[in-house]
Structure formats: C-alpha cells, structure tokens
Amino acid sequence: MLRSLVTALAVSTLLAGNLTAQAGGSPAPRLSPETEALLRPVLDSAAQDSLPVSALQSKALEGAAKGRPPAEILAVVRGLAGRLRQARSVLSQAVPGAPVAAGDIVTAAEAMAGGARPEDVARLRKNAPPGASLEIPYAVLGELVRRGVPVGQASDVVDHLVESKVPEARIIEIPARVDVAIRLGAPPVAALGRALHGLGLPVPPPVPGSKGRGRGRGRGRGGGRG
Amino acid sequence: MGDTPPDAVVVARVLDGDVEAFALLVDRYQDEFTAYAKHMTGSADDAADIVQESLVRAYRSLRRCGDPTRFKGWLFRIVSNQCKTHVTRRARRRRDHLDDVADDIASPYEADSAARRAELRSELEAGLQQLPADQREALVLRYIHDFSLREMTEVAGASIPALKMRLKRGREALREKLEGAV
Amino acid sequence: MKHEHELLTRYLDGELPREALPPELQAEADAFHGMFEDLKQERISAPPWVRTAVMSRVRAAPRARWRDLLGWLVTPKLVPLSPVTAMVVLAAGVAIAAAVRYQPTAPSQVAAQVQDGRVMTRFIFLAPEASSVAVTGDFVDWRKGGIPLERDPSGNGMWVGVVRLEPGVHQYVFVVNGTEWRPDPNAPALNDGYGQKNSMLLVPQIRS
Fold first, then answer.
1. Which CATH number does B7-181 carry?
2. A105 CA to chain C: closest CA distance, Å?
3. Nearest residue of C to residue A169 by CA position?
4. ipTM of the predicted structure?
5. Which chains lie within 8 Å of chain A at 3 or more CB pairs, if any?
6. Domain C48-203, architecture per CATH
7. Residue C165, H or E segment
8. Which pTM does this prediction carry?
9. What is the least distance, in Å, from the CA of B143 to any CA of chain C?
10. Distance from the Cα of residue C23 to its chain's centroid
11. Chain C contact for B165, CB < 8 A?
12. For residue A106, what pLDDT band results from cuts at 50, 70 and 90?
C-alpha cells in the first residue's frame, strides 16, 4: 500500500511539478506528456524496488532542460535506474537488514560507474560505524578512482578515514588537494599521499605483502614528496 | 518562536549588516507581491520574475526607504514600477494566462458553479489586462489587496483625487468589457 | 460608455454608507465587490525558488560594512600624517580591497553560516563578456533560469552567488547569457549521460 502510494506520489510529482510551475510562476523545465508516459514504468519499478526516485526525476528534468529528446531521456534514466539497483543490492547484501540511505545508493552507484568495485563498496559499508552516512565517502572514492588512484588504494584510504571517524568536512577536501598535487606533476598515488599529509589525515597502516595497502608509506605519513 | 519583529526593526538590522535578516521580509511579503504582480501582468511566470527583481532592488536601495514603518508601501511601489516596466517590455502572453486558469479547475467533473466562477474570474482577469496600467493598478490595489486610498498614494505616487478618478474610470471600463463579454 | 451613477461612485470612494444607496445600486455595489471576491480568495504563492534566488543575490551584493572600513583606512585622519605614513595607510586599504576581491575558485562554503541544516555555498564564475550568468543544478530541478548570479562590482569579470544547499552531493552547471551551459572549470566534472559535463559539488554536514 505504501509502495503504491510512493509510486503514485513519484509520478504525480513529475506531473504536478509542471502544473505547479505554471500556477506558482516557476519556469521549471517541462517533461512532455510523451516523456512522462515513457518514464512511468521506470519510476514505478524504481519505487517498488526502494530506489531513490528523486534522483531519477532529477535526471529526467535535467534532460528536458537540456533539450534532449524523450527517447534519450528514457535511455539515460533507465541506465541510471539500473546502476542504482545494482548499488542498492551491493549495499543491502553488505549489511543485511540495515536500512540503506538514498544518498549512499546514489554515490555508491556513481563510484562504481567510475571504477570502484562492488567489494570496495561493500567493505566500506561493513566497516563504517552503524548509521553513518556514506554519501560523501562514496563520492570521494569515486573521485579518487577517476583521478587515476588504483581502486584498491583509494578504497583502503577512504575505508580507513571512515573507520577513524574523520568528519565529512575534512574528507571532502581530499579530491581538490589531489588535483593540486597532480597539476604540480605528482602521479595520482603520490598526489593522494600529499593530500592526506597536507590535511593531517590518517593514512591506512601498511599490510605486508598486500597490494591494496599503502606501499611505500610504511612510516605512516603521506609519501611521495617527489 | 514568538512574534516576528516589525518591518522597521528588521530593516534596521539589515542596514546594520545582518544580511540574513532580509529573508524575514522576503518571507513576509513575497506571496502578496506575487499575487499583485500576477494580477498586474496576467502571467504567473512574469510575476515571480518581477518579485525576485523587486526584492533585490529593495535590498540594494534599502537606505533610501525614508520611513521604515512604511516599508510595505515603499516596497509595493518598487513592485508596481517593475510591473509597469515588465508589461511595456514584453508582449502579454495570452497562453500563459489561460494555462493558469486551467489549473484552477481541479477536475472536469467539478460542479457547474465552480466552473462558471472560474469562467467569470477568467473574464475579469482578461478585462483587467485590457485596462491602462494606472487604472489596473488602482483597481487591483483597492479591491484585491484592500489598500486604503492613503496607502495607495504611496504606491502609485498619485494624489487621492487622481486615484479616485482612476478607480472610477477603471470601474466603468471594466464594466463595459465584462458586459460586452457576457 | 455607460457612466457610473454618482451615488455609487461616492459609496465606492468610501464617502457614503451602503444603506444610503437605493436597492438597485446596492445590488450593483454588491455585484461589484463579489466580482473581486474570487480573485481576493485565490491562493497565490511565490514559488520556492524566488526566496533562494533573492537571498543568493543579496548575499553576493557588496556589503556596506567593509566598504566603510575601507573608507576609514584610505581617508586621511585628523591626526596629521607624514606623507610616508599616509602612503602606508593607503596601501593597506588597497591591499585589503584586493584581498576581498573574488578569485575564480571552486564553490566554497561561506564561513560557518548554517541554518536549518543547510550550508551557505558561494558560486563564482569568470565571464567578463557575459550579460547574464546563472547557476542551475539538481538543487533547483535544473531550471534553465537557475539562480542568477551578481556581477562583481569591481569589474573583474566575476559573477557571484551564495546559495543555501542541503548537505550531500550536488551536480550543477553555469548558464551564460541564458543559453550556453558551461561546467565549472574549477570543480570536478562528471558525465551527465547526455553527452555533456556537469560539475560536482560535495557539501558536508556542518554542525554549528
């Protein structure tokens, strides 16, 4: 009953958004009736699977605002729904029974689209303090992987930061610092090390013989001053 | 939370550097201004743009608000001027007006009286749009926003006798248009 | 044109009570008021984006206070200053003016100003030739008009706006001259799925 209400609300919000836009005066992007009809089954299905429907709505509105044709909007939203579905599955299997936050699903999906592996996503969730939001850590994981940091090392770093309960506001600063170091000529791993050092953030302790752990940073400080 | 502070107090705070206090004034007046601008321009879209522009202008020229206890009238004047500028700059979009009215009819199976009322309202709005701006302004301020003649002088920048003349001519013109439409 | 009855005019001008009108004019007066009643009752609200856009532009507008401070620094004081001291004071004022000029950076949180859980975030875009710049993204449902930015009054070509954002991850772009969609050159880029790039902004939860 609740799910069908959620579905109805999700679909009607897209439609009502257009009417409200008229009556309320907001020049909001419109979805054509054709696009709305095409999207309805995708949104229905997403709502039934407890996916963040608002992320799909936002992607549809974005496409409309950018003047994309209905078929393209449908393809993009469907693709996103598929990635969200996969992310949700990974997250719920990692810690069965625990609620899965919408924000976590979205950024975990984004991280996996950028190259993070399901096992990295799952590990972060398993090791995180209960109830912690992982929306930002997953986003940062994705950003590090996109910048060329090997996925295992990126995952180790983010995992360690979350386990150490480093505040989001600090974790958020890492990608920009990595960018600066890369621009100054550092390779991605070294750039990450510099970023962590510069921010005074903890580095994961090395595990002997393990590829995924911080090789060359055994002293526990960000390596790569070169 | 207790009573929100009067306009003069909020204006003083903003002038003293508390930018966020301006949000109190935005919240207090934005709906009323949007309604007014919609009646003046016939377009909900234009109304929202006008209100946004007016409020930002008001912030920028806040020091020139002579008497903060008459802030509302001063602000209404800015909105009114923006409406007139807006109307002369853009062609009135009849389509938007009809769409706005269509939204007000909740269902095609609504009782006849509600549909008829909506039809009359549509005719009234169309009639208002056909009036000269100063007559429309006078009618909207007086009969929709319940301004007194004295309050209207601040907004319209006209004397009471002049406003009475605008109201009378506006009423006569409106009556003629509505009787012609029936 | 049929002219209004003089008694009706005086009543509508507030000079006569309703009871002073003959019945047919009372009916006409009631019909007139009734005509506007529906419009009066109509619930019209400003859309939520109006408040967001207004406050964004207001926050970005130059503040009187620091200008007053600058004025104090560059204005000769009553205490006589040697030419060298006067030059130092003037230089200090100019240095401060330069320091508060906006530099093109990625969106930044504006101090620790938090209200209702949302974080005040400043967007800056360099576009000296533009006649308008707005920022749009998921936080305004990708509305094309977005939130208009204000031109920096110093003439440095920057456009600035401060928007209150929910913590989390946001995607946005700038819209130049109402038509060109441009990602932020100072922020991470993401494929939007439609063949273009969006910019990404991470807004942390800030506990005040």
1. 1.10.1740.10
2. 12
3. C204
4. 0.80
5. B, C
6. Sandwich (2.60)
7. strand C158-165
8. 0.59
9. 6
10. 52
11. no
12. very high
